[in-house]
Design goal:
Elements (H helix, E strand, L loop, with lengths): L15 H16 L10 H26 L4 H28 L9 H8 L3 H7 L12 H23 L4 H24 L4 H5 L2 H17 L14 H21 L3 H6 L1 H18 L4 H6 L2 H8 L1 H16 L5 H37 L5 H6 L1
Length: 371
């Protein structure tokens, strides 16, 4: 799921919008009708999770370094105004589309409540897709991210109050990341089904935590060193290409047990040098692509693209039988709708968010330490 919130503002991190664009296009093609069985669209969600953990933790770490504290009020205000309005618009649109018969629907109050209160992932595990508004099951990943947003900032604040250093906290996160595949393997041995392993927060949290650990330990945007001391030539010539190849290879492995247990862990390791290189080398030829105007715009719109793309794909498919044409038209329409949501919802609420943030109390580092 796209990392809600862009990087154009007080903290600009090159290439992150480009990462979002690549991730959302991977997901879009995976959900399209042209190559759904051979295209690894699921890895787009892995990229989104890693990016979300990295970006959110970078912002929290930066706030703590500047003021000596982290404001949960401001954090939840930003997340609520950024995430909930576009998500609720999508849910309402899906309910209406199903109610008037444009798409088949089994919508009921329990499925709607699952999406409104962000437990779609566990609803799917227990109930399945019955009852959800049509073409909105991708909101399971939003539920995972919302659970992360609910728990992680408070846990980070608690650890900082216990006088744990940023480095120690990052290492604790790495331990949790290392335990996660063991948990997935144990669930697999115990007979857990696909959705229990694929959509549950407790089986997907490690990708978010890995991004958070990178933000705390090896954050190029905040001047940290890379995880190992290697020359830029070695990083560019060996680690980044190797990471890209292994990431792609593991994405194409068809064995379900592999995909649901250790694939994410391998891909997390691969993403570290890739993220590092593209963030620190935006002027490289690849970096220029990731930071080009069109790619950045798609990345900026990626959250809304992710929310509405399945609805648009399904609706266009009712009138366009040729799958490649359908997917192309659906992509253009999806981007147009996402742009409208950006203009009419996201930008105005961004201004509201900034005004509200200025009204919340802010304490300096000195006053925070005296308290």
């Amino acid at each position: 799921m796209p990392a809600p919130g862009n990087t154009h503002g007080p903290l600009t991190i090159p290439s992150l919008d480009g990462f979002r664009a690549v991730a959302v296009l991977l997901v879009f093609v995976g959900h399209g009708f042209t190559a759904p069985r051979i295209w690894p669209g699921h890895v787009g969600v892995t990229i989104f999770f890693f990016l979300s953990g990295y970006l959110i933790t970078t912002l929290l770490r930066r706030e703590y370094a500047a003021s000596g504290r982290i404001s949960l009020q401001k954090f939840y205000l930003r997340r609520a105004l950024r995430i909930l309005p576009p998500a609720y618009i999508t849910i309402i649109a899906a309910i209406v589309i199903g109610a008037i018969g444009l798409l088949p629907a089994t919508t009921d109050i329990w499925g709607v409540l699952a999406e409104v209160f962000n437990y779609t992932n566990y609803y799917i595990v227990v109930v399945g897709h019955e009852g959800l508004p049509p073409e909105t099951s991708q909101l399971w990943s939003l539920a995972v991210e919302e659970h992360f947003y609910l728990v992680f900032p408070a846990a980070l604040i608690l650890m900082l109050r216990k006088q744990l250093s940023i480095t120690v906290i990052g290492r604790i996160l790495l331990i949790a990341v290392a335990i996660a595949p063991l948990w997935r393997i144990a669930l697999t041995v115990g007979g857990a089904d696909f959705y229990r392993l694929y959509t549950s927060t407790d089986t997907r949290f490690d990708t978010l935590l890995a991004g958070a650990a990178m933000a705390l330990l090896w954050n190029p945007a905040l001047g940290d060193r890379f995880v190992v001391r290697v020359s830029e030539r070695t990083l560019a010539a060996v680690l980044v290409p190797a990471g890209a190849v292994v990431f792609a290879a593991t994405s194409l492995v068809g064995a379900e047990w592999f995909r649901l247990t250790i694939a994410d862990t391998i891909q997390i390791i691969c993403l570290v040098p890739i993220f590092w290189w593209l963030i620190t080398k935006p002027q490289s030829w690849v970096g220029k692509i990731f930071n080009s105007r069109v790619v950045v715009r798609i990345g900026l719109l990626s959250f809304s693209i992710y929310l509405v793309h399945r609805l648009v794909l399904a609706l266009t498919h009712t009138v366009i039988a040729f799958n490649p044409l359908n997917d192309f038209v659906a992509l253009i329409v999806t981007i147009a709708i996402a742009q409208l949501i950006y203009w009419l919802v996201e930008k105005p609420l961004g201004r509201v968010r900034k005004r509200l943030e200025t009204r919340l109390p802010t304490r300096s580092r000195a006053s925070a330490q005296r308290s």
